[in-house]
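Most newcomers find our protein records easier to grasp once they have seen one. The structure tokens are whole numbers drawn from a learned vocabulary of backbone shapes. The record below serves as our worked example for the rest of this section.
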Amino acid sequence: MRLSYDVIVIGGGHAGCEAACASANMQAKTLLVTMDMNKIAQMSCNPAVGGIAKGQIVREIDALGGQMGLVTDATAIQFRMLNVGKGHAVWSPRAQCDRGKFIWEWRRRLDETENLDIWQDQACELIVEQGEAVGVKTIWGAEVRAKCVVVTAGTFLNGLMHIGRKMVAGGRIAEPAVSFFTESITQHGIRSARMKTGTPVRIDKRSVHFEELTEQPGETRAYQFSYMDKARQLRQLPCWTVNTNAEVHKVLRSGLADSPLYNGQIQSIGPRYCPSIETKLVTFPEREQHPLFLEPEGEDTNEMYLNGFSSSLPMEVQVEALKKMPAFRDLKIYRPGYAIEYDFFDPTQLKHTLESKIIKGLFFAGQVNGTTGYEEAAGQGLVAGVNAALKAGGSEQTFILRRDEAYIGVLIDDLVTKGVDEPYRMFTSRAEYRILLRQDDADARLTEKAYQLGLAKGERYKWWMEKKKAIEEIEEFCKNFPIKAKEINGQLEALGTTPLQFGVKLEDLVARPQLNFANLSAIIPELKEILSRPKNRQEEIAEAAEIRLKYKGYIERERLVAEKMHRLENIRIQGHFDYNSLQSLSTEARQKLTAIDPMTLAQASRIPGVSPSDINVLLVLMGR
């Protein structure tokens, strides 16, 4: 059988779902090929979305018209705002989700998306003609032709799972690996390598002594990921914390000889920032305990996830070690933790659109680019889906996010410019413009852009315009409302801040660290009144306006720095130089510039091994 589409998306994980929806919403006739329609957007590891920097990515996906925020809000069973003790630039939302309901909410949204079909099958061969991807063949004999192909295969490409000395081929527990597809891509000159990740034991909550654990409740405030939702829908559940101890560590160390991480079984590199419990013991031998987090898998299941106990040790070692903790003395498990090795492709061979530099019309997104995390995958998927749809439609337009526009822009630029030597995970520290990339202003940064592109629809744009107007009204009020010293000094001293020497505008008071809209509205009735005007999401609007006023100077300063960098971003150098012939460049710079072939001088400046003096040489050669 032969099928024909504009865009084919291979893989129904977080990257694939966002890519397929984005492509279809851009009016491209799209086919999503997945091995199991009942495991769409499966949360293979932790049933949670968001976290440090990851939460910002989900907000950006939502602002761009993506689905992850909406699905998360509909299935959240706990919500927390992380880093609230620090500045607003690093506040990060995180939600625990009902794993099963998350899958079916995604499935519902895919089913309701126009221009999108789903095909349950396994791709086994990429069809390339004259250097261009034109389709795929499947193990059941279907041949699907398309103008663009997006590969989002996750951990399935030649996946190999490890528990102790046991090895089983698979892309996820109880699911088959995908053989031969990697080879059908690498034969055209695209480089691949291997990475490793892992997942913890799953526990039966009926065997847990919760009185030995510390409860960790969620937020009572109605935080959400999507700017479009009105309220959480599911019952909110607590998580629990516990620490390992010396006895646990003793049992774990006894099994290290059979650990595939240390007996030579696994050669590939794992994620530095999400290490296995055995790696923690080896790396930090002086530590007497490590924190673990017991998290619910859903409203209606006894299955629980033990965050922090990722392991590939023999299953009997995992269980014996856990039973040394009082809370788990009667432990029963559904399955042990395991490690998995899989293929990925060198992301420096990609353009910023996530299209291959080698095979036209072939896009990559998610873990196949060497990243880890649902959020990083989904952000890439959205960008790849949009660009595939644009290319399939014959448009010369591309969708590229700058580093000062989005964490997704930082992520993709890091991948294509620097490459990866371990699974890439996003952190706020990777972004040089954190004050501009806050979780509260993703819609301000991206919704207008998405609407003009056709990705964000009318309802979302209308809500943003209403929110924008409400924020600006509050800002304008604060800039113009006069404060008289003699009328407010008593209240200011009571709030622990210095009294005024003369009259000021309200925005000057908002800038003080001791003051905020909550305590100021209690003593300024006019402020309380204007904060209550928005019909929807009053807290969200007030928070956005307050952050803009309080950090106005910092925001403007960082914006000026970003604008200076734009000058280098506007100097295009791709195709201008034969770097190997430029003897005035360092040897490393010639090699790195030739391999990556950066689009702009700014991108060249971010390549490891390219020095400021090398950039100056290029500036001189460009007549700058």
